Amino acid sequence: MIAFPNAKINIGLNIVRKRSDGYHDLETVFYPVMIKDVLEVVEDRELSFNSSGIAVPGRPEDNICLKAYKLLSHDIKLPPVKIHLHKNIPIGAGLGGGSADASFFIKLMNEKFTLGLSIEKMENYASQLGADCPFFIRNQPVYAIEKGDKFENVRLDLSGYQLVLVMPDIHIPTSAAFRDISPSPSTKSLKDLIKNNISEWKDSISNDFEPGIMKHFPEILSIKESLYDAGAVYASMSGSGSSVYGIFNAPVKLEELEEGNRVFYGV
Ligand SMILES: C[C@@](CO)(OP(=O)(O)O)[C@H](O)COP(=O)(O)OP(=O)(O)OC[C@H]1O[C@@H](n2ccc(N)nc2=O)[C@H](O)[C@@H]1O
Ligand SMILES: Nc1ncnc2c1ncn2[C@@H]1O[C@H](COP(=O)(O)OP(=O)(O)O)[C@@H](O)[C@H]1O
Known about the structure:
By secondary structure, this protein is of the alpha+beta class. It has helices at about 65-75, 95-110, 120-125, 135-140, 175, 190-195, 210-215, 220-230, 255-260, and strands spanning about 1-5, 5-20, 25-35, 40-45, 50-55, 80-85, 140-145, 150-155, 160-165, 235, 245-250, 260-265. The protein has 9 helices and 12 strands.
């Protein structure tokens, strides 16, 4: 059985406070986007994992898909499976690719072996694998709070726009991005700001990771500026970076940005 885990972008990201468990309370909007991995599970004589496409850092045995298998098998008797991941979503990009793989793996196992897991139960398993994993179970636009794992649906449809996503050759581990952050409560609710016309977002919706990351990597700021220069209605780094997206009213082709960066077009 095959699934196609997709990436997400963050529209706005406020880091509100440090929690007693070492994590941070956030306010963000997660929006699913078109860049996809391919994840295949077949029954086999023993449990195995391999991948193709973009090289995934770390040992195969530490891949988040195997962690998801082991988590499920604490509670449920599962047959051994062969897992193949074709990696296409850039890594260390703020696109949640590993988290998507984990959550789609849980959904795939649930369907393939008729495990009867509810959405809530799958979200609960996902939350044990990473803060933004639960989002990918329902995989719908949400306003997320706390660790990024408590959701309210938002009515947001970007399908009439052209999204351009630029991935520079910079890999930012999420844990490193938090080191430069001084959390502070937000003054206006992102949940309300997101309802405004997209043309108003530029002056009201921001990502708290940007100042620290852009200071270290000025080329990320340059990409954001290039997207605005090319006519983006809104542009932002996604999550903890390094990818940057621009939302355009009409189709564009940004050849200059394609030099040295991976550029994806679509929503
Ligand atoms: C912060 C976000 C915003 O979208 O960054 P991106 O990964 O998307 O860039 C995500 O919620 C990340 O989710 P995820 O990548 O699953 O996080 P985890 O693996 O659980 O944690 C990675 C690291 O980030 C820190 N972390 C993560 C989430 C959070 N709410 N507070 C944190 O302090 C953790 O302390 C950990 O060191
Ligand atoms: N299936 C996977 N896809 C991507 N990364 C994975 C996967 N499994 C484990 N990882 C680990 O997660 C790290 C990426 O996490 P993170 O820096 O949070 O990325 P992102 O910003 O893309 O969410 C990688 O360096 C890798 O070691």
